[in-house]
Write a structure and sequence with these properties.
N-(1-d-carboxylethyl)-l-norvaline Dehydrogenase, domain 2, 2 domains, about 10% strand, Rossmann fold, alpha/beta, eight-stranded mixed beta sheet
Amino acid sequence: MPSDAPLSRTIAILMPGDMGHAVGRVLRDHGQDVVTCLQGRSAHSRALAAEGGLRDIPELTDLVRQCDMILSILPPAAALAQAETVAAAMRTAGATPVYVDCNAISPATATAVSEIVAAAGAPFIDAGIIGAAPGKGSATRFYASGADLAPLAALDGQGIKVLSLGAEVGKASAMKMVYAALTKGTWTLHAALLLAASRTGVLPDLLSELEHSQGAALNAMRARIPRLPADSARWVGEMQEIARTFTDVGVPDGFHEGAAEIFRILARTPFAAETRQSIDSSRTLEEILSVCAAQLAEAD
């Protein structure tokens, strides 16, 4: 989605988590001045910001005054509160940078965020991020929708790919929701059926059968499920947003409400204290299933 629009000189990343700091890093590597506000943030977030080369502006009001565009990248449950906080800072600062909501939220939530931002007088872009963090393979895709996409389109090719879905707010969020319904929904389906197999005493037999008849699926389970706890707490909200998206268009939401519950189970394991950087790569599928099954047995 190329654009002749001038590049934003100062781009704020709120917040510099696993995805946010990586986006900030590639934008900085392409000559952008990338900033963030680390007030009240954890040591882990501060370390990621430093790794990404993001410049810290201690006060949010000062950040709003200095930046041309804000990319909101954080767990979906915090998207509305983040928009409210930034909108208040905009009013105090008397500045209205472009606000891009890049969170995994439903079209209805995206519309609510756009209304908060519009009330502060700022332009709004709805965006949905698909793919691994920049620098980990093919360019991360930013699907975008909104009245004026030029500010975000100007970043196309700078470590990210920007794809237009038109002028309607909510289209980009819908794209993210239906895509994540497949990816994270599949991971939770795998975890759920393996937990059921463990608790009914047929797990070794099932794994043997899967190795015989569903080798690719079993390899995916072994590769992915031991890594899920590190992200499970923040993905609960994403599953709820997917369920809301389905409900709003008359599609049953029960599967992804169940997916949220699987992530809650994983978030209660000791492995959930890990970060993506500290995940124990030697942990086996059987090990995590044993811990989760024991938790469920205690709850009986």
